[in-house]
Design a protein that fits this description.
Strand order of the largest sheet: 3-2-1-4-5
Bound molecules: 5'-O-[(R)-(carboxyoxy)(hydroxy)phosphoryl]adenosine, zinc ion
Number of helices: 11
Number of strands: 10
Structural class: alpha/beta
Distance between the termini: 36 Å
CATH superfamily of the largest domain: ATPase, nucleotide binding domain
Largest sheet: 5 strands, mixed
CATH topology of the largest domain: Nucleotidyltransferase, domain 5
CATH class of the largest domain: Alpha Beta
CATH architecture of the largest domain: 2-Layer Sandwich
Radius of gyration: 20 Å
Strand content: 15-25%
């Protein structure tokens, strides 16, 4: 029997990725070309450089994805592409490539919201998972608690009022000298540190609020470093990493569980780059177990930016909303 093939492109930040999926959830290929090594020299992603590298890599990544999947462009039934949120120049590279292929081969095209992609990574990981469920999305650019009521449909219950979780990790890593990308480096360093060495305030905001604020924590880390330096005391990087991480994770775990209990959802779906964090996965699992909630977490490769999750989201969006036309544009601040 004939499989329905979706090919998707993800280029919203510093990963050029192209994937081919069969029937929406089976990954035939998921090629990810990372620019991390290039941006490390600058301490973070430089948007203009990211766009240029997407341009250089795109055709090769498309070809490799088709080859690994054992198909040609003529076999593709649907094209998906991230059209926001993200860096505008980077997004445009993906959107232009997808439109060109859609036009040349007369393939239907669907623009995918990057955040819906992150959630959809879980549909790949768990073939039986279906909405409704509660979801915690923690990435470099976004932090949200959303209730997913159906494929592609969600109610946003909370979000960050300043920095995203991944952004806080990256900024703190920079000031303690761990470099870019900070998240994985803090994750590793924290394993050697004492999470109770320094007490950083947990910011819960107003009672009942599912919003977040992390910029104060970032400042608290900076103040701690300055105070210690002025007093001539040695700083333990693992202790700062562990103490910072404990403050972040305690808040996001509490709020995610509170949201699931409030809305009587017994499924909690974790998504986004920070979902690769070992302590977050472990602490969230322990709290879910206490409350009879089943936790869904994708493999780390599906947590960080990749096109397989975009293809999966495209597959479901096409079924409910149909195709977009060739006027599809990039929206850097697209809301979830
Ligand atoms: O989802 P993603 O790949 O890109 C965005 O859409 O933003 O997320 C990247 C973010 C970065 O801030 C990175 O530091 C963080 O995810 N991250 C981690 C870990 N792996 C990636 N944060 C904490 N622990 C990790 N193991
Ligand atoms: Zn992402």
């Amino acid at each position: 029997d004939q499989k329905f093939l979706t090919m998707a492109i993800e280029s919203s930040c510093d990963e050029t990725s192209v994937a081919v999926l069969a029937d929406g959830r089976t990954v035939l290929s998921n090629v990810i070309s990372s620019q991390i090594a290039i941006h490390t020299a600058f301490g973070g992603v430089v948007p203009e450089i990211a766009s240029r590298h997407h341009l250089e890599n795109m055709n090769r990544v498309v070809e490799q994805s088709l080859t690994e999947a054992g198909v040609t462009l003529d076999d593709i039934d649907l094209l998906g592409v991230t059209y926001g949120p993200g860096l505008v120049g980077a997004l445009l590279m993906g959107v232009a490539t997808a439109k060109a292929m859609a036009f040349a081969k007369d393939i239907p095209l669907v623009g995918v919201n990057h955040m819906h992609g992150h959630i959809s990574a879980n549909f790949i990981q768990y073939p039986d998972l279906k909405p409704p469920f509660m979801s915690l999305i923690v990435s470099g650019g976004h932090t949200n608690i959303v209730e997913m009521t159906d494929y592609g449909q969600c109610n946003v219950l909370g979000g960050t009022r300043d920095d995203a979780v991944g952004e806080a990790y990256d900024k703190v890593a920079r000031v303690i000298g761990l470099g870019y990308p900070g998240g994985p480096k803090i994750d590793i360093a924290a394993k050697e540190g004492n999470s109770q060495a320094i007490h950083f305030k947990r910011v819960f905001l107003e009672k009942g609020s599912l919003d977040f604020s992390f910029s104060g924590l970032k400042t608290a880390v900076l103040n701690y470093l300055n105070t210690e330096k002025q007093a001539g005391r040695e700083i333990s990087v693992p202790d700062v990493a562990a103490s910072f991480q404990a403050a972040v994770i305690e808040v996001i775990v509490k709020k995610a569980i509170e949201a699931a209990l409030d809305k009587r959802q017994d499924k909690l779906v974790l998504a986004g780059g920070v979902a690769a964090n070992s302590k977050l996965r472990c602490d969230l699992q322990a709290e879910c177990d206490k409350h009879g909630i089943r936790l869904y977490v994708p493999d780390p490769v599906l947590c960080t930016d990749n096109a397989a999750m975009i293809a999966c989201a495209a597959y479901y969006k096409y079924q409910t909303l149909g195709a977009d036309d060739l006027y599809l544009d990039a929206y850097p601040s697209l809301a979830i």
